[in-house]
Amino acid sequence: MIFEPIVGISTKLGESAVNIVRISGEGSFDIVSKVWKGPRIQDAFTHTVLYGHIVDHEETIDEVMVSIFRSPRSFTTEDTVEIQCHGGSFIAMEIVKLLLREGARMAERGEFSRRAFLHGRIDLTQAESIMDMIVAKTKDQLRLANASLRGGIKELVRGMQDDLLSIIATIEVNIDYPEYDDVEMLTTEILLPRMQLLEERMHQIVHASKAGARIKNGLSTAIVGRPNVGKSSLLNSLLKEERAIVTEVSGTTRDLIEAELDLHGILIRLVDTAGIRQTEDLVEKIGIERSKKAIEQAELVLLVFDQSQPLDEQDKALLELTKDKHRILIGNKMDLGKVIDLQGEVFIPISAKENTGLDQIEHRIREMFFDGSLEEKHEAMFSNARQIALLEESHQTLLDAITTAKASIPVDLIEIDLRKAWGILGTITGESTEDDLIDTLFSKFCLGK
């Protein structure tokens, strides 16, 4: 498969030490040679770096280093040249203009990665992991992306597909060369145990994917409490910066304050809400309504109390409002003593002012949502919403096949569900994916990637 040469800037434009201009495709070496003054590119070995200059006829544009990647030993598997020039938008764009003039085409978003996929260099899960690496904000997000890029998700999918094919083959062989005269024995003693074993494995992978999605997307967390219990102080303590205004005046926070926190590998998307109470202040009312909406949308609620004061009616109302949510009860102002009685509810005592007790919050979050998943740092987990949706669909289709088998329905009808489950798994890696989906996925990539 031969593709025309494309060019793009692979680094972020702006003032920097260096920029990299990438060109890939049939004839890339010849195109670069037309604007190159230095050792002959066509004679260079793959994975070598040459020193020289980019020129426009007799005018020198920049002093550069050129990296040579010969097909198939490149990211796209095509002949590829990467030109490392001095930083600054102007220089890089001038080099791009010269390469366009000599016959290259401007790359579309994600087109280099798309070519790597089309040439079989990577599968769809690995392509998606590249973008996950670029936008990673925590070490655990990076580890998750790296595991997928190394082919971890692909191996999981292929393992499930192999098991499905083995079951399908057993059915096919029995249809063509009946080994079992008793069809019910084939279903209950041979097929059903194997399907159930695979279903258990898929169920475990689906369960682990919930933790993977939280690692990738972050945990949406609302800090909630009545006015003046120390919600904003807790936000500032967690962030280790003065993000929210803190005063002794109730109702200081009148709107949502959002921030992201890397809690030792866990991305927490925090929302500090306005204190919820009865008020006639129109602006504060709007803030309180937004707070209630934030509670509804949050995966986790940090419900804060002033443990130096008795539980009041507003506290009780918040306990009732959040009773069906994943929540952690926090007793702030432990430095002022303990008066509060939460009627048997367990809470974490802290002092946001003195930064004590915060580590217990992190421990509780890990315990509630990650179930040891973060300890398995080198194992691949599904985390992409598209992949998880397809995994769940395939799992449900396998459950349908099991239900069919238990109803003693002919094995060729069981096979239909099994084949469907196999095909859905193939969509995850891109083995059976529509062109319009491919277009959509790679259009989300940055230019030059």
Write up this protein.
It is a single chain. The protein has helices spanning 28-33, 89-101, 111-118, 124-135, 139-149, 152-176, 183-217, 231-239, 282-297, 313-321, 358-369, 385-406, 411-429, 435-443, and strands at 6-9, 18-24, 36-37, 48-56, 59-69, 80-86, 105-106, 219-224, 257-263, 266-272, 300-306, 327-332, 348-349. The chain is of the alpha/beta class and 449 residues long. The two termini are 20 Å apart. Mean pLDDT is 85; it is low at 244-255 and 374-378.
SSE layout and pairings?
Layout: E1 6-9, E2 18-24, H1 28-33, E3 36-37, E4 48-56, E5 59-69, E6 80-86, H2 89-101, E7 105-106, H3 111-118, H4 124-135, H5 139-149, H6 152-176, H7 183-217, E8 219-224, H8 231-239, E9 257-263, E10 266-272, H9 282-297, E11 300-306, H10 313-321, E12 327-332, E13 348-349, H11 358-369, H12 385-406, H13 411-429, H14 435-443
In short:
The chain has 449 residues and is of the alpha/beta class. It is 46% helix and 17% strand. It folds into three domains: 6-121, 2-Layer Sandwich (Gyrase A, domain 2); 130-215 and 381-430, tRNA modification GTPase MnmE domain 2 (Four Helix Bundle (Hemerythrin (Met), subunit A)), CATH 1.20.120.430; 220-352, 3-Layer(aba) Sandwich (Rossmann fold), CATH 3.40.50.300.
